[in-house]
Amino acid sequence: MTTLTTVAHFPDYPVRWFHCRGWLLDPTLAELLPDSNLAAFQRRWSLCGEPEPGEEDLLFFVFHRRGQVDPTALPADTALRRVTVDRLVGGRGWNVYNGRPHP
Question: Which end of the chain has less neighbouring CB within 10 Å, N or C?
């Protein structure tokens, strides 16, 4: 569907393939928030390659923070932030994954 949209709107720029890379594809997110829009987004992708540490990306995009952060001092005012804080406080990390859209 995305390729068709791209072809329809940008015919001079054909797309052969594309991918997504980020903490949004970490399967832990869908396990912790199974009914969320983020989980629905993940279901559109097939993971490929090996994961890499992703705490820095997650801290930046969820909390707008960089560098060393005390996870107990982070706000937990949304469901996403609560599961993130709980996982970080528990010493478990997050990963960045690569994914391709389902055919």
Answer: C
In a domain, residue 8? The reply is no
Q: Is the pTM of this model over 0.85?
A: no
Tell me the C-alpha distance between 18 and 94, whole Å.
23
CATH number of the domain bearing residue 54 = 3.40.630.120
Nearest CA to 88 out of 38, 20, 32, 30 is that of 32
Model pLDDT for residues 27-67, shown as the tens digit of each residue: 999 999 999 999 999 999 999 999 999 999 999 999 999 99
Residue 90 has phi, psi (to 5 degrees) of -75, 0
Number of domains in the chain: 1
